[in-house]
Design goal:
Elements (H helix, E strand, L loop, with lengths): L14 H15 L6 E7 L5 E7 L2 E3 L2 E7 L3 H8 L2 E8 L4 E11 L2 H10 L2 H9 L9 H14 L11 E15 L7 E8 L2 E7 L2
Antiparallel strand pairs: 1-2, 1-5, 3-4, 4-7, 5-6, 6-7, 7-8, 8-9
Helix pairs in contact: 4-5
Length: 202
């Protein structure tokens, strides 16, 4: 489906049909990072934690991003494999909310994506002890130089602590701005029989 989808009238059976179109339109309209999203996780104390990450892949299985598994979000997701995502495309006046279970991507998927990254980004994955205390910028630069020298020749291997997560959606909500706050909200909920839809008051 290539034409724009207005959720006031168009309700395809598969929510990914809407998401695919909206993401393509965001790629054409947003000035920076149309694949940026807010990712919310939960810690051991039950407190939510949110940060921005980049979507690196999606299909019928779910939404994929990559990170350091020893980071705060990585540790939280490994301990509590549930998450919420929020895309906000301001120029299009649209939002997409996603909630679901989380699984780790396969080693093959992680290897393929890591190999596609620029070499300096690969070095950065080794150099950054993500979410750990940093004494100063020089400490980071020193580690970048250290791993840059170590992997100056040949391919950079993927760090064992660096991989991806897939959020498997059980709920996807599409939100479209409307005049006088009369927004359109369309919710897809997954069950054993497939997706069901429901409209919500704004």
């Amino acid at each position: 489906m290539t034409a724009s989808i207005q959720i006031r009238a168009d309700i395809p059976a598969d929510p990914f049909e809407i998401f695919d179109v909206w993401l393509r339109e965001a790629e054409a309209a947003e000035p920076n990072d149309p694949n940026a999203l807010s990712l919310a996780t939960v810690g051991e104390d039950g407190m939510p934690s949110a940060r921005m990450v980049l979507l690196k892949g999606h299909d019928a299985r779910g939404f994929v991003f990559y990170t350091n598994y020893e980071s705060r979000k990585g540790e939280q997701l490994l301990a509590h494999p549930k998450a919420a995502m929020l895309f906000h495309w301001k120029s299009l006046r649209r939002q997409v909310r996603i909630e679901g279970e989380v699984e780790q991507v396969s080693a093959e998927e992680a290897d393929d994506y890591f190999a596609s990254r620029p070499k300096q980004s690969q070095i950065g994955a080794w150099a950054s002890e993500q979410s750990r205390p940093l004494k100063g910028r020089f400490e980071l630069e020193k580690r970048v130089a250290l791993f840059g020298a170590r992997y100056a020749v040949g391919q950079v291997p993927r760090p064992p602590h660096w991989s991806g997560f897939r959020v498997i959606p059980r709920l996807i909500e599409f939100w479209q701005d409307g005049a006088f706050r009369l927004h359109d909200r369309l919710v897809y909920t997954r069950s054993e029989g497939g997706w069901t839809t429901e409209r919500l008051f704004p």
